[in-house]
What does this fold into?
Amino acid sequence: MNKSNIFLIGPMGAGKTTVGKRLAEARGLEFIDSDTEIEERTGVDIPLIFEKEGESGFRKRERLVIADLTQRSGIVLATGGGAVLDADSRQWLSARGFVVYLHASVDQQQHRTSRNDNRPLLQNVPDRREVLQRLFEDRDPLYREIADLVISTDGRNARQLAREIEDHIDRPATAV
Ligand SMILES: Nc1ncnc2c1ncn2[C@@H]1O[C@H](COP(=O)(O)OP(=O)(O)O)[C@@H](O)[C@H]1O
Ligand SMILES: O=C(O)C1=C[C@@H](OP(=O)(O)O)[C@@H](O)[C@H](O)C1
Ligand SMILES: [Mg+2]
It folds into this structure.
């Protein structure tokens, strides 16, 4: 396993992008966000990719980006909330870095995603909370399947969370 890589997984609004930036800065690692990488490669934003190619088109692009980025070393990678849906992506993330699941309650997810309109899965839906709840039920087992560390983000700010992750990574392994 490439222990210099840190991969952040978890639902929309968990704070993967925000915490990832802080963590990378604190550890002198390069920060990469898979959504930003997809936007740079395609030259268009995520909502337009969903509009033109549907979710399946976006997932294909996301899979390619995860395949590539996980081969690097010395990075903090913030993934998109659905990156774990692909079995190969889960395997790459698990094998090539330290995987942190940023957990957030559905209430917190809803609050933290309320101001942005750049998440197509939450646009034009009658009940955003219901969507977030369903996604959480589908995906929580997948996040847990590959997590080396699960951190609850509710009521904690990004700086505290970055420090908590660092503490875990730097903690000496317990002797058996
Ligand atoms: N720990 C936190 N506490 C409060 N607000 C947060 C926290 N983490 C992220 N946010 C805010 O929530 C929103 C979504 O965060 P973001 O990092 O984009 O989440 P993700 O990448 O997991 O979808 C942003 O407006 C961000 O400023
Ligand atoms: O949960 C998802 O399926 C998605 C999460 C988004 O990323 P964030 O988790 O960073 O919001 C982005 O990849 C896309 O809108 C789809
Ligand atoms: Mg993000």
